[in-house]
Design a protein that fits this description.
By secondary structure, the chain is mostly helical. Helix content is about 45%, strand content about 5%. It has ten helices and four strands, in the order E-E-H-H-H-E-H-E-H-H-H-H-H-H. The strands form two sheets. It has a two-stranded antiparallel ribbon with strand order 1-2. It has a two-stranded parallel sheet with strand order 3-4.
């Protein structure tokens, strides 16, 4: 898993220093009981100095075809359809008012829920506002002109262009072209599979330099 070195320099792989930071965290250093106690404070606030009305339910559905979800019987489960299903799920569970939160692919679904604005949805929160407008995506791919941008948007555009040229988006290429190649290793509770994920996610350290000013338009639905 670690990057090997020889006279020609590093070869593709995850830097050894990255493994040195992440492996102990996952194996021994993370305080699982402390994290559990924080969650308990949310589920039983009166036992932790809070008020009963501070408690709330958390509903965590699995995306169709992943986790605890069965394989879809047909194609077409794009963010729009999943968003409608999430609202239907909440209504069937008896919730007349709720908020939605999403990250990564869940952020795409949550943003769509915000656009659809079903009656019971009180608000949304996303922690991955990473949508690129179609005209900007075309410019990044070299198939369209660079649109007019503010100085801040231009800085984001250039940072994103540099990121894509750096080879750090290999994880995205793998997930969008050969998802099963990594899917099996990550869905069978395999420690080796999870650790190998470092191989293509270690460049994530650079994400902090990418602003999110381009993440303002709705995503394009994909089957």
């Amino acid at each position: 898993m670690a990057r090997a070195r020889d006279g020609a320099g590093p070869v593709p792989g995850c830097p050894a220093e990255q493994d040195a930071r992440t492996d102990p965290l996952l194996g021994t250093d993370y305080d699982w009981r402390q994290a559990e106690s924080r969650l308990n404070a949310l589920t039983d606030p009166t036992a932790h100095g809070g008020a009963a009305q501070d408690a709330f339910h958390v509903v965590i559905p699995s995306l169709p075809g992943y986790g605890f979800s069965a394989r879809p019987q047909a194609a077409g489960w794009n963010p729009d359809r999943i968003a409608r299903a999430w609202d239907e799920l909440m209504r069937r569970l008896g919730y007349t008012r709720y908020v939605a939160q999403g990250g990564d692919w869940g952020a795409a679904v949550t943003e769509v829920m915000g656009r659809q604005a079903p009656p019971g949805l009180a608000g949304i929160h996303v922690n991955l506002p990473a949508t690129v407008p179609p005209d900007v995506e075309a410019a990044l791919a070299g198939i369209g002109p660079v649109p007019e941008m503010t100085e801040q948007e231009r800085a984001t555009f250039e940072a994103l262009a540099a990121y894509r040229k750096s080879g750090s988006s290999g994880y995205f290429a793998a997930l969008t072209t050969r998802p099963q190649a990594v899917g099996y290793g990550l869905t069978v509770c395999s420690p080796a599979g999870g650790s190998q994920w470092d191989f293509i996610t270690c460049p994530f350290d650079g994400y902090a330099i990418l602003p999110s000013t381009l993440a303002v338009q709705a995503i394009r639905s994909r089957p």
